[in-house]
Specification:
Strand content: 25-35%
Largest sheet: 6 strands, mixed
Helix content: 10-25%
Structural class: alpha/beta
Shape: globular
Number of strands: 14
Length: 213
Amino acid sequence: MIKVHKLTFNPFSENTYILSDETNECAIIDPGCYFSEERELLKNYIESNGLKPTKLWNTHCHLDHVFGNFFVANEWGLELGMHKLDLPTLKHMPTAATMYGVTGYQESPEPSYFIEEDTVIEFGNSKLEVLFTPGHAPGHIVFYSKEDQFVINGDVLFQGSYGRYDLPGGDFEVLKKSITEVMFSLPDETVVYSGHGNETTIGAERYTNPILM
C-alpha cells in the first residue's frame, strides 16, 4: 500500500508529495522546496521515517514545482524523470523566475530520462500509471494508482477549480479535454492530490467542477 505525504512549500503554496510503501523506498514528486528551512523539512521527514528516496518525478515543470529538483537530485543522487514535451517549460524557468521576481533559487538539472504516457512507473513494490493531461502545461502528466485509488494530479484539477491555461504552452480547450476525457474517466472514489490546495475526489468534481460550465 502506498502512503501519500504532502508538504506545502514556497511562496506559491505548492504541494510536494512523498510516496512510500512497505519497502521504505519513496518517490519524491514535484519538490517545491525553495527556502533552506523547507529543504530541511523535506530531509527531516524522509530521515525520521527511515525512507530511501529512489525516484524524482515531475508532473510538469513550472518553476514552483521544480524549485527543489536540484536539492533532491544532489542530496540523494537521483535522476530526474519528466515528460519530454515539458522540456521547454523547464528551460523557461529562469525567465519565469524573473517575471515573478524570484531570486536565489537553485536551477533544476536536466532530465536523465523521459516518462512516456500510457506506461507504468515503479518504486519499491508499487506501480503508477502515467496519464497524459496537457493544457496547463504542454507535457503535463499525472500518476494514477488504481490499487490505492488516488492520483497525483499536479495542476490539472483542483477542488472546485482547474489549472491555469494562460501560461506559455497552456490551452483551455486542451485542458478541458484532459479533465473531461482523462481525469473523469477515473472512478469516482479516486482521491485527487493536487499541486495546490486541498484534496478532492473525481466524483466530487465530475458533477460540480466549473470546467463543465
